[in-house]
Every structure is written in structure tokens, then in C-alpha cells.
């Protein structure tokens, strides 16, 4: 079945449909990871986006229930060069095609993903519409123009939890670390904001001996204080941080209350809460091979990233924050810390740890702060 991808600037790509036969709209981005498509599909930070994989052969190890990062795929659509229809892996329980069909997510393959990636790099990421339902180009264009843009849009509301829960891993212990912190003699209590949190972040928090209370993005500062945590964690999540003003207000009210650690969207929300500014990147950072320099140690980390917005370095300069990590591809802010308070954050995903340098020291630092 033919499938058509129409970009906001009028560029058209034609390929073959897989997954659910449907019409969907989202920001078209590319991911440079060679593996990990299952984690990418289920990362809540991809809500509102159609993901193009630059690695050409996708689906070869199928899908298994242990490696998901949330309860279901969160992408709006999946774009690949060549779909493997017969996966080969002892842990696989179904094919990629069957998995996307089961969750109502459309896909397109047999298109030139190299050309699509070049186009996005040159023109910037942009909204697109994907359809296998026989719509004409003018019909697709009309739907696309009426769809809300990412800028200023609250995407967190679509992925956050709607309840407070004490989080425990739901997979066998062999699939995550056992307690790895030397500070685990005290079970610190962490209030973790769910802006679209990944399962492996939660598993690592538990692995460090933390008792984790997962709270919705709309939780107020007063509600957090009623939990009496030892620390506050700000998770990753999708979209524009300026669209979640309620989260910014809450974080502003909690700064200085207890040690605070933010990742990705949590990093950006912290910036806004301190009076800084964020801006939209040309085509975002999506992949597992982004070089980041720790400005204190001068160690280079190879990091996993997924975000379309970044912190303006000038905007935090006189807000009590200093930059701690630098992206070596485009010199964007990858980490910051407060000069006086136990508050720090990183833009990348340390829980993914794709490179040779172990990023788990960031979780250990959280424990050190709570111990003081």
C-alpha cells in the first residue's frame, strides 16, 4: 500500500505503508542511532514527532516487552529506509510491523531517508503529514496547515501520569542494576516529576537506593512539600518547555527547598524557572552519539539525546547558574549548576549511557547532595 509524506514546505516523499494504515501529523525529525529503535519508539519525549531513522535497516531484532521506555509507543509515525519483516532474536515476541499495528502507529518505508535527512538538516525540522488513506496532496496540505505547531504547545499533558505512585520496576531484576550506590545505607526519598519520564531513569533511581514517588507534571510545590522528600527530580519530556508554564512555576517555588536534579525537558524547565530563556534548535538533537564535554573534568562523554529546544547560555549567566557541560557539535548548553544551591541539570540522557564514559556519576552526585 502506498504511503505519502508531505512536509510543511511542500516537499513530498512516497513509499510503502507499514504499521497502522492511518493519517497522522507531527514534527519530522531524524535520529542517528544505529540501534535502539524500540527505546526510541517508546520514549515519551517523542510525542508529537515523526521519527526518521538514518540507519537503513530497521526491525531486525523485533520487539520484546522488557526494553520499552514507557507503556506504549509515543511517536506519531515511524520513517525507515528498509523494514525487516522477519526479525531474528531470541527475545523477540513480535515484529516491528505487528507492534505498530497493534498500537495504531503508522509507518512508511522504501523512501530515501538520506535525502529526507539532508532536507531536514538544510531546511530545519518542520511539521509533516503522513497518509496511506488515498488523500490528495491538497487535502493533506489543508490538514497540515490547520494542525497546531510545536512552539508553545503543551505536549507534556499527553504523556504524564495522572496519579501519585511509589514506583517499583515491573521487569525481572536481571534487566536493571541492583543497588549500586555506596550511599544506599540511607534510603533517600525522591519526588520525581513525570513530564514523560523513561523507565530506565526510574530503574536507576531505584538502583541507587532511592525510594521514588512519581508525581504528575501538574503537581504543585505545596503537594511536593507535603510528601517531605529528600530530593526533587525533574524528568525528560516532549515539546516546548515554554508550553508547560505550570511546571515552571512549581519548579521556581521549589528551588532551594531540597536538592534538585533535572534531565532534558527538566533541564529546560529549570532554566525558565530561574529566569532564563530557551529557543528552538534548527533540527534538534536526536541520537546516541552526541559528544559532550564536562567542563570540570574535560572528559568527553558520548551521549544519548532527544530534544528540539535548548537553553540560551547568555540568559542564565547572571541567574546564579554556570554551565558545566558543552555540546561539541554545536556548542549548545548540555549542563548547568547553581553556584550556591544544590541544583544541577543536564540536557542529555545520562541513564542511556551509550558512550565509553559512565554518566551514572550524575545520579551518585544526587545522592551525595541529599546526604549533606
Looking at this protein, list some descriptive labels.
Glucose Oxidase, domain 1, alpha/beta, 2 domains, 10-stranded mixed sheet, Rossmann fold
Question: Would you give an account of this structure?
Answer:
It is built from nine helices and 19 strands. The chain is globular. It has 372 residues and is of the alpha/beta class. It folds into two domains: 2-146, Carbamoyl-phosphate synthase small subunit, N-terminal domain (Glucose Oxidase, domain 1); 156-371, Class I glutamine amidotransferase (GATase) domain (Rossmann fold, 3-Layer(aba) Sandwich), CATH 3.40.50. Helix 7 (245-254) packs across helix 8. The longest helix is centred in the first third of the chain and has 11 residues, at 113-123. Helix content is 22%, strand content 30%. It has a ten-stranded mixed beta sheet, with helices on both faces. Strands 1-2-8-6-4-3-9 form a seven-stranded mixed beta barrel. A two-stranded parallel sheet has the order 5-7.
The assigned CATH architecture of the largest domain is 3-Layer(aba) Sandwich
Instruction: Please identify which CATH superfamily of the largest domain we are dealing with.
Output: Class I glutamine amidotransferase (GATase) domain
Q: Give Rg in angstroms.
A: 20 Å
Provide the domain count: 2
- What's the number of extended β-strand segments? 19
Termini separation comes to 61 Å
Strand and helix order: EEEHEEEEHEHEHEEHEHEHEHEEEEEH
* Fold-level CATH name of the largest domain: Rossmann fold
Strand order of the largest sheet: 10-12-11-13-14-19-18-17-15-16
**How many helix segments?**
9
Portion of residues in beta strands equals 25-35%
In this structure, how is the largest beta sheet organized? 10 strands, mixed
Structural class: alpha/beta
Q: What's the rounded overall pLDDT mean?
A: 93
Uncertain segments are none
Q: What helical percentage do the residues reach?
A: 10-25%
Text of the CATH class of the largest domain: Alpha Beta
Shape by Cα distribution: globular
